[in-house]
Amino acid sequence: MGATQSLYLAGGNAYSAVPGCGAPGCVPPDGGGIAPVSIALTPGTGRVLTFSSVLGTMSFCPGNTCVTSNPDGPAPPLISTGLNSSGAISGISAGTAGFLGGVFLGAGLPASAPASLDFNTIGTEFLSLNPVLGQLFFIGDGSTAASVTQQFFVPDGATTLYLGIADGFSFWGDPGAYDDNEGAYRASYTVQSTVPEPSTFLLMAVGAVAVFALRRRRA
Question: What is the pTM of this model?
Answer without folding.
Answer: 0.85
